[in-house]
Amino acid sequence: MPSMTHMALVELERAGILKFVISQNVDGLHLRSGIPREKLAELHGNSFLETCPSCGVEYLRDFEVETIGLKETSRRCSDTKCGARLKDTVLDWEDALPSKEMNLAEKHCRIADVVLCLGTSLQITPACNLPLKSLRGGGKIVIVNLQKTPKDKKANLLIHGLVDKVISGVMDLLNLQIPPFVRIDFFQIILTQALSSDKKNVNWNLRVASVHGQKAPLPFIKSIEISFLENQGYKSAILQKEPFQLKRRTLQAKSFEMVMKFNFIDSCGCPSTEIIVPLNFKVSRDCFELDKDAILQKLRHTAIQESCCGQNAVVERNAMLTPKTEVIVYAIVTNVIRYKKTTEALEADSLSNGVKRQRESANGTETSRKRSKVHRRKPRF
After folding, report:
1. Which amino acids are annotated as binding site for Zn(2+), given as ranges?
2. Of the listed 6, 30, 44, 212, which one is catalytic?
3. pLDDT tens column, 318-352
4. Are 149 and 37 in the same domain?
5. Of 116, 161, 269, 290, which residue is the least packed, with the fewest Cβ within 10 Å?
6. How many domains does the chain have?
């Protein structure tokens, strides 16, 4: 899950203060937290991202891609005009940094007023030299890291401290709120049916699958409990492992409602949620795709207002007549995290011993040589 700093950066970007983010992490948290893709350079790739080498389309997954080293994965581009095999985006040791990401990173460092180096050792080349490009254009460098870095002497402000504490204080000074993180995942319910040989019954198959492909994992679901309303006499079931699939036979003319209880993995914000699915075995020719952005925005708003997860909504529906199949795509809130500020720790002067400021001189910046006559212990950071 994104940290307090991840979400603070999202708010700084929305406020127009943060212009670009350069990341050496492969956890994909900047993208998932809400930083726009065009304002993000992931120099070492993203473990949850696949890309099409033919048309360039990117696919953000809710599971970790199974390969690294820019290799082909088991999936293909969903564009019917393309269909090329997808590749992972995570670099192996011998792989060069992606030129597109690197060029954007260099460009924004050159024109930046301030480059914030947050929680990085600044030791891996060539990424560690990117902040220095801002100095040539009159920009400044701020380094926040618990340990020393090779670039400390180039910094205009150096803070040996916890990034979350520092950013929390910054947000306080700017009177900006750190937004909560709302995670929304997706799944699809696939209902396939066929008439029995006597034409009186319907053999139907229910499957809960990932929107990234029927063979892709559903990492946030532990199990699914299925029951039926109004004492229909149908046997309940518990689907405990993937593929989550249920087969039944019912009378063709009968319609009823099925209750699906989704049990989530422990890291989700709530243990479970229920969805009622009506079954009438009449596959419509109609297909629709709702305003996905509006639906997701409403889900986020409701989750934040109620401070809980489990809210869900249909975002898409497709139907096929041969074989008779109905596919319904759901969005579901699986986590809501609020970030409390730690201003008390800042006001208690927890960072004062770790801050080194540099002053401006006629020839540029230099470290102040004024020292107290009183012997001071070295900071513990």
Report:
1. 52, 55, 77, 82
2. 44
3. 988 878 899 999 999 999 999 976 555 445 444 44
4. yes
5. 290
6. 2
